[in-house]
Design brief:
The structure is a single chain. With 313 residues, the protein is mainly α. It is 82% helix and 3% strand. The protein has 12 helices and 4 strands; from the N terminus they run αααβαβααααααβαβα. It has a two-stranded antiparallel ribbon. It is globular, with a radius of gyration of 18 Å. It starts with a helix and ends with a helix.
């Protein structure tokens, strides 16, 4: 058991550091290429924080552990809303001013509903994966178009929240390359450890994906959102979570199922409904007022802990 835990820990550390390097290096490149801070935050940063989920899901699917691959994304989306957004709000009430974030929340809800409908037949086929990737292209086009004239305050917030202008071109490229290598290596190590732990504990790989793997691959989102919340950048904290959830469905599952069709394995329809329910709750909280209070964050975290308890009951 100890070697397996070591692989999990080493893989998790590599995923975290690799994700951080990928986010910061990619953000620096995006800003130096002339992308607006807002567009960089909603696309490159969201992609970077979803990179661990992509690597883990692709490697799990390649090894035939489709339940682990599916559980990783579904569990990560649950963790992003309930744990990441909840803890961020507990740290400091989150102020939401950006109309773009409000646009992205309904898109996240639609993506979650679409995934539930696609998985009613227990599988995600190649045509469905291609459809998800086309949805990603449509989302990126919409984001580029809608971010051409963001509010000055929003631009300042994202420029301060993404410290990317200070890196040179060579350093930014090195950060991206190093991050990619660490993600690939850490992902393989983490999947091996997760598969071994599922055998030792006698639980389905999907359960490990919904819990341990999901929390582990959500650490980049957690780190980014907590820092943004503490600094008072509410839109960054929320946009990171929402953008990452959209990328997880459209890009991670879209690309993975295009490469190799996925069965949802041990991921039940109830797990999918819970993911959808958290999306609905987040939309209600974010649309109802401009500030998410600490008690609302406590409700989200309590819901996540209750889900974890039910998962292992």
């Amino acid at each position: 058991m100890t070697p397996l835990l070591f692989k999990l820990a080493a893989g998790l550390l590599s995923l975290y550091v690799g994700g951080e390097l990928m986010v910061r290096g990619s953000a620096a490149l995006g800003l130096r290429l002339g992308m607006t801070p807002l567009l960089t935050g909603l696309t490159i940063v969201a992609f970077g924080t979803s990179a661990p989920e992509l690597v883990v899901s692709l490697q799990a699917a390649w090894r035939g552990q489709t339940g682990l691959a599916m559980g990783n994304v579904v569990g990560s989306n649950i963790a992003n809303i309930a744990l990441v957004l909840g803890l961020s709000t507990l740290m400091r009430p989150v102020e939401i001013d950006s109309r773009l974030v409000r646009h992205d929340v309904p898109i996240m809800l639609v993506c979650s509903l679409l995934l539930v409908l696609m998985l009613i037949d227990h599988q995600l086929s190649r045509p469905e994966g291609v459809a998800l990737l086309l949805g990603l292209i449509a989302f990126l086009v919409f984001t580029v178009y809608d971010s051409q004239a963001p509010k000055a305050a929003v631009r300042r917030e994202f420029a301060e929240a993404i410290p990317g202008n200070t890196q040179s071109w060579s350093l930014a490229f090195l950060m991206v390359l190093t991050g990619a290598v660490m993600l690939i290596w850490g992902g393989g190590l983490f999947v091996t450890g997760a598969m071994g732990v599922s055998v030792v504990l006698g639980v389905a790989p999907a359960v490990v994906g919904l819990s341990v793997t999901a929390i582990g691959t959500s650490l980049p989102e957690l780190a980014t959102s907590l820092v943004a919340a503490v600094r008072g950048y509410g839109d960054m904290a929320v946009g990171n979570v929402v953008g990452s959830n959209i990328f997880n469905i459209l890009f991670v599952l879209g690309l993975t199922s295009t490469v190799m069709p996925l069965n949802r394995g041990g991921v039940s329809i109830l797990d999918l409904v819970i993911m959808l329910a958290f999306s609905v709750v987040s939309m209600r909280l974010l649309a109802s007022h401009a500030v998410m209070e600490r008690w609302e964050g406590a409700v989200l975290v309590s819901g996540f802990l209750a889900y974890m308890a039910w998962l292992f009951a």
